[in-house]
Amino acid sequence: MEKRELIYEGKAKRLFNTDDVNVVIAEFKDDLTAFNGAKKDSEAGKGALNNKISTELFKMLANEGVESHFVAMLDDNHMVCKKVDIIMIEVIVRNVATGSLSKNLGIPDGKILPFTLVEFDYKNDALGDPKLNDQHCLILELVKNEAELDQLRSMARHINDILRPYFHARGLNLVDFKLEFGRDSEGKIILADEISPDNCRFWDLETGEKMDKDRFRQGMGGLKVAYEEVLKRILN
Length: 236
Fold this sequence. Notes:
Layout: E1 3-9, E2 13-18, E3 23-28, E4 31-34, E5 39-42, H1 46-63, E6 70-75, E7 78-82, E8 85-86, E9 89-96, H2 99-105, E10 112-122, E11 131-132, H3 134-139, H4 146-168, E12 172-183, E13 189-192, E14 200-204, H5 214-217, H6 223-235
Helix pairs in contact: 1-6
């Protein structure tokens, strides 16, 4: 498969066209960003770890009937994906209060939520990825109708129902995570982007240690070691 021109570059990945119009190659970068790009750095090997973690999780979800853009891992830093039109909504799934939820609403950090909370953020760096309600999504024409919003929520909750016990069995509490979805060549909504410690919060079940990008956000250090541990637990 031939890697051709760059078609998109985001904070964590670059996307390239290929000789197949329905397939792209995603390159996982070592760049680290937080607070809508206000904090930046790089960690050698981070991209490869996220590629490997995402590969294993996309494969596992496929076995559970969840369709995604994943085709194959090409090499350490590259993934072959179906070409999709990304829906410009970040779907946030929360099981435990922390981060912006605690900051904005005063819910104690670490409080287990009475039910899984699904939120929508506008995928727009220039505006700082603001919160969206259903009417915002419709006014901005990010989806076709309310039924698609219900579909995004349902898919997110279903993925959470698979991932949460999966990680629990590996000694990790899936605190919250971000999902992105896109439309494939037939217009079907499928899972896209990545699933990794860059967009998931993992806390060790025994110690409460943070095993995700919060180590960078909060200046804790040890990010690569934490990501390596997450991969190790997935592979074991």
